[in-house]
C-alpha cells in the first residue's frame, strides 16, 4: 500500500484535512504545555501527555509529502509555523524550503543558524540549490561551493549566472545521454545498469563525441522497436530545444503547446547543457499566474498572509496612495455638479450604476487583453483591429443594457428624459472602458512595463471619474 509521501500532491480537501489535524494538535500541545509549566510540583502526567502530543504531531508531519508540509507552513501563523518547522526532520528541510512561498522561506531561514542551513542545502541537487541560493546568506553559499565536487560546483555557478526569469536558472542537470552509433539493445542494457532514471524522463538525449545534441530517443520508441536497430535509425532529429537565456514564461507556453514532458537545453553551439521538465514548467505557470493576480491589484510581491503589519503596509501602500488620489479626483468631479445633484436627487442614486458597470466592463476587457499579451496573441498590427472589436462590443452592450436601465429609471422617476440620459451615459462609459481596457496594457507594454501591474486599479479609476463626469454632465445639459 502506498504511503502518503508516495502519493504526491494531495487534493484540496485532503490538504485542508491535514491542516485541520495539525492545527488541532498544536492547540492541544499549547494547552498541555501550559499545564506542564505551571508553578508548583511537577505534574508528571501532564509532562507525559505533552511528550505524547509532540510525538503524535511529529508522526503526522513525517508521513506528509514535502509539498503538503509546505502548504501547512504557509497557512500557519508565525509561532505555530516555527513549532511545526522545528519538528521537521533535518533530511527533509531542503525539500520543504523549495516548496514554501518566498515570504515564508525567508522567515524559516531567519530561524535557522548557518550549520542547519548547510545541512538542509546539502540534501539538494545543484539545480535545486540554485533556486534556493539567492535566499541564503553569502557565507553559507560560499561554504556550500567549497563542499561541492567540481562538476556540481560548475553546474551551480552556471545556474546562478542566469536571471530568475531565464531558462538557465531552472534547468535540470540530471539527464541520460546516449550515442547514436549503438543499438537499442545496448541502450536498454545501459538503463538496466543505472537501475533508476531521473524523474520526468520521457526521452533520452542523443549526443556526439563533442556533446552536441543530434536528436532525442523517446522511451516509447525504445520499447516498441527491434532491439537490433541502431539509435540513429529510430531517434527524432527535430526535437524541441531551448536556450538558457530564453524567457521561462514563453518556454512554459511552448511546453503546453507541444505537450512536452522534458526538453533539452543547448548552448549557442548546440551542446547539451541541461534539460527542462514539466515539473519546473508547472511551477513557472503557477508563479506567473500568482504574479499577474498580485500585479493587477497593485501588489509588488508575494506577501506572507501572517506578515507583520509594517511589511504588509510597505507592500500595499503605493497603489493605495494612487487609489486615494483617483478617489479624490472622482469626488471633485462629483463636486463640480453639486448644484445639479441638489436640483435632481435621482442623479445621486443612479450615478454609481454608471460607474460600476463601466468598471466591470473595463476589467473584463483588460483581463482578456493582459491574458492575450501573456500568450503572445496580440501584436501592434492587430491592436487596432482588437480595439475596433472591443468598441463595437461596448457599443452594443451599452445600447442594450443602457436601454434596460434607462427604462427602469423612467419607470422609477417618471422621466423619459432621465431614462435617455441614463442610456447615453451608460453607453459612453462602456465605450470609455473598452478604449482604456485596450490602451492601458498596450501602453504599459510599449514603455517596457508589465501590463498587469495596477491595471485593475487604473481602469476602475478612469471609469469611475469618467462615468460620473459623463452622466452628471449629460444630466446638467439636458435635465437641469
Task: Describe the overall structure.
By secondary structure, this protein is mainly alpha-helical. The chain folds into 3 domains: 4-166, MgtE N-terminal fold, CATH 1.25.60; 177-296, CBS-domain (Roll); 309-478, Orthogonal Bundle (Tetracycline Repressor, domain 2). The chain contains 23 helices and 5 strands. It has helices at 4-7, 12-36, 44-62, 66-75, 78-85, 93-99, 102-110, 114-121, 126-133, 138-147, 150-160, 167-170, 184-194, 219-224, 231-234, 248-258, 278-296, 309-336, 338-343, 346-374, 380-413, 416-446, 455-478; strands spanning 177-178, 203-207, 213-218, 262-266, 272-277. The strands form 2 sheets. Strands 1-2-3 form a 3-stranded mixed beta sheet. Strands 4-5 form a two-stranded antiparallel ribbon. A hairpin with a 5-residue loop joins strand 4 (262-266) and strand 5. The radius of gyration is 30 Å and the shape is globular.
Amino acid at each position: 500500500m502506498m504511503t502518503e509521501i508516495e502519493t504526491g500532491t494531495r487534493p484540496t480537501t485532503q490538504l485542508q484535512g491535514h491542516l485541520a489535524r495539525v492545527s488541532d494538535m498544536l492547540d492541544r500541545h499549547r494547552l498541555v504545555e501550559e499545564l506542564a509549566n505551571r508553578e508548583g510540583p511537577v505534574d508528571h502526567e501532564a509532562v507525559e501527555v505533552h511528550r505524547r502530543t509532540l510525538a503524535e504531531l511529529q508522526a503526522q508531519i513525517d508521513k506528509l509529502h514535502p509539498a503538503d508540509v509546505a502548504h501547512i507552513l504557509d497557512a500557519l501563523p508565525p509561532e505555530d509555523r516555527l513549532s511545526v518547522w522545528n519538528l521537521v526532520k533535518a533530511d527533509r528541510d531542503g525539500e520543504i524550503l523549495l516548496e514554501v512561498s518566498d515570504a515564508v522561506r525567508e522567515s524559516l531561514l531567519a530561524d535557522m543558524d548557518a550549520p542547519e542551513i548547510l545541512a538542509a542545502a546539502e540534501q539538494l541537487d545543484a539545480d535545486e540549490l540554485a533556486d534556493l541560493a539567492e535566499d541564503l546568506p553569502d557565507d553559507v553559499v560560499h561554504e556550500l561551493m567549497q563542499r561541492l565536487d567540481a562538476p556540481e560546483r560548475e553546474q551551480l555557478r552556471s545556474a546562478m549566472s542566469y536571471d530568475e526569469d531565464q531558462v538557465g536558472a531552472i534547468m535540470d542537470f540530471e539527464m541520460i545521454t546516449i550515442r547514436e552509433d549503438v543499438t537499442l539493445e545496448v541502450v536498454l542494457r545501459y538503463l538496466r545498469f543505472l537501475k533508476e532514471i531521473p524523474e520526468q524522463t520521457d526521452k533520452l538525449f542523443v549526443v556526439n563525441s563533442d556533446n552536441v545534441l543530434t536528436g532525442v530517443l523517446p522511451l516509447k520508441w525504445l520499447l516498441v522497436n527491434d532491439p537490433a536497430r541502431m539509435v540513429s535509425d529510430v531517434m527524432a532529429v527535430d526535437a524541441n530545444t531551448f536556450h538558457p537565456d530564453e524567457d521561462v514564461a514563453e518556454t512554459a507556453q511552448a511546453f503546453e503547446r507541444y505537450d512536452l514532458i522534458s526538453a533539452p537545453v543547448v548552448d549557442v553551439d548546440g551542446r547539451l547543457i541541461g534539460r527542462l521538465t514539466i515539473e519546473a514548467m508547472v511551477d513557472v505557470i503557477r508563479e506567473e499566474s500568482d504574479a499577474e493576480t498580485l500585479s493587477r491589484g497593485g501588489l509588488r510581491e508575494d506577501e506572507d498572509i501572517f506578515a507583520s503589519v509594517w511589511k504588509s503596509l510597505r507592500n500595499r501602500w503605493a497603489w493605495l496612495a494612487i487609489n486615494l488620489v483617483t478617489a479624490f479626483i472622482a469626488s471633485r468631479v462629483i463636486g463640480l455638479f453639486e448644484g445639479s445633484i441638489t436640483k435632481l436627487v435621482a442623479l445621486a442614486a443612479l450615478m454609481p450604476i454608471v460607474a460600476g458597470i463601466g468598471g466591470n466592463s473595463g476589467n473584463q476587457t483588460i483581463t482578456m487583453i493582459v491574458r492575450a499579451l501573456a500568450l503572445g496573441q496580440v501584436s501592434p498590427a492587430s491592436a487596432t483591429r482588437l480595439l475596433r472589436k472591443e468598441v463595437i462590443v461596448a457599443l452594443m452592450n451599452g445600447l442594450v443594457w443602457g436601454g434596460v436601465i434607462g427604462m427602469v429609471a423612467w419607470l422609477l422617476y417618471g422621466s423619459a428624459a432621465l431614462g435617455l440620459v441614463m442610456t447615453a451615459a451608460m453607453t459612453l462609459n462602456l465605450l470609455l472602458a473598452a478604449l482604456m481596457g485596450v490602451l492601458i496594457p498596450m501602453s504599459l507594454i510599449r514603455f517596457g512595463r508589465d501590463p498587469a501591474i495596477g491595471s485593475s486599479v487604473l481602469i476602475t479609476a478612469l471609469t469611475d471619474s469618467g462615468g460620473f463626469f459623463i452622466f452628471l454632465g449629460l444630466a446638467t445639459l439636458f435635465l437641469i
